[in-house]
Amino acid sequence: MEEQKIAVVVTGFGPFGEHTVNASWVAVQELGKLGLGKEVDLHIYEIPVEYQTVQRLIPALRKKHKPKVIVHVGVSGMATAVTLEKCGHNTGYQGLDNCEFCPGTQCCVEGGPECLHSVIDIDTVCKRAAEACLDVQFTVSTDAGRYLCDFTYYTSLYQSHGRSVFIHVPPLGKPYTAIQLGQAIQTIIKVILDMLEQSEDHLNCGHS
Prior knowledge:
It contains 5 helices and 8 strands. By secondary structure, the chain is an alpha/beta fold.
């Protein structure tokens, strides 16, 4: 019997502001070319920088693909390293999106906790990714910026019960190429899948 493939969903963002070419989507497209190995079904999506689309799209992607993990990639003009975000925030959304819209409540989920963390150990992911010797710097952050990136991460963490990760990449050429960013994301996801498999093996041992 053929073993069922693992589904992984990875998203990047479309253009906004000065980012007429969004490095996150370019990096995700590079990942699409590289793939994640024959046992993984990789599904990539470009998300428009719109709050309401994010709220509609994330549950739809989860329902459609039932991914083992969902990984979102965004660009940060301030980043100089590939940055793994530990948590998403619920409130403080005042920046207008590409439709000149911002949530009236300035929050993702009314009544939701202020901060949601990934169930995946982000510090360990960062450490293992750095050990891959890609000539790319990796770092960890606890502030995804209170705009569409943070909003997407919180929404996704809420929907997936923490089985989501957010990666911020620097703009293209500052200092990394599209290929380097694609390889960095590929490395991070392979580390995550490996960690999830190990933790599930550990749980299964406990139940047998």
